[in-house]
Specification:
mainly alpha; extended
Length: 75
């Protein structure tokens, strides 16, 4: 079962470490670091059901590109 309650002893320190992890990286490098971190943490969790719950929770409220209510103009 996915734990969504605060579970970090020092959440501000973790946030600062995440910010520092991306400092001085290009957007592409930052995306690569994020992907690597996600895969490392997924392996550490090791429970596919929990990972699916986390993926669903992370996707909540995100409208897929092209399906939002933003007005588009055509040429």
């Amino acid at each position: 079962m996915l734990n969504t309650e605060l579970n970090l002893a020092a959440p501000d320190d973790v946030y600062e470490a995440l910010v520092a992890l991306h400092r001085d990286l290009t957007p592409e490098q930052s995306r690569l670091v994020n992907a690597k971190l996600i895969l490392l943490l997924a392996n550490h969790v090791g429970d596919a059901a929990v990972l699916r719950q986390a993926m669903a929770k992370a996707r909540e409220g995100i409208t897929p590109a092209g399906q939002d209510s933003t007005l588009r103009t055509t040429a």
